[in-house]
Amino acid sequence: MTPTRILVLIPARMASTRLPNKPLLEIAGLPMIVHVLRRAEEAAIGRVAVATDTAEIAAVVEAHGGTAVMTRVEHRSGSDRIFEAAQRLDPRRDAEIVVNLQGDFPTIMPDTIRQVLPPLDDPAVDIATLASEIHSEEEDRAPSVVKAVGSPLGGRRMRALYFTRATAPHGDGPRYHHIGLYAYRRAVLERFVSLPPSPLERQENLEQLRALEAGMRIDITIVDAVPRGVDMPDDLETARRILSKTRAAVTRRGRSTA
Fold it and tell me: In the predicted model, what is the mean pLDDT of the chain?
């Protein structure tokens, strides 16, 4: 899959009430959205841009050498926002795959981003995403942790059957924490955003259920760890510690090779 076929789009807006101005909060010397932009660029899978409705976010992204696409304010979801951004960036529809990378994953590893793509080598797969095995009861029971339920396909792959905030499936066996990173076939994304919210989507407040209810196939790659999302002040401090240590380690390596 060549990079010219892929758009990596990062939706970002200022709407968080728990962390005001979240995309622009400083982490290890850079705004959070710039960290996500850098991880996407390092993944080197395709053209990268931030899709936003906020001029301040766009200005920060562009000041750090990135591409920003202004989108409408009224979008209901990140999927709607990246669809508009894809239309603006690529009106000739050269890109066949659109990756939706959340703007609050500053500690995500470039290899984790790359791992979302292989399921789309199978033409039967419409959407690809990620999950990681749950290892704690707290994670298992938390409604904020979305569980991916699927049929194993061999190796580190599953075909998604359902997503839920409940503890599922019942009984012994592994459970999986869904990671909100998606790769869509371009035509599938277009169809997806044209559909109204589905009944289960409304009940669980999970957008991906709209795709399953519409008969779309979602395959999941199992990865080793869940990237730390930043939703609360404690998450922000954790990300600051992680990335400050990473920056210090890079600085030490640079001095040792100088």
Answer: 92
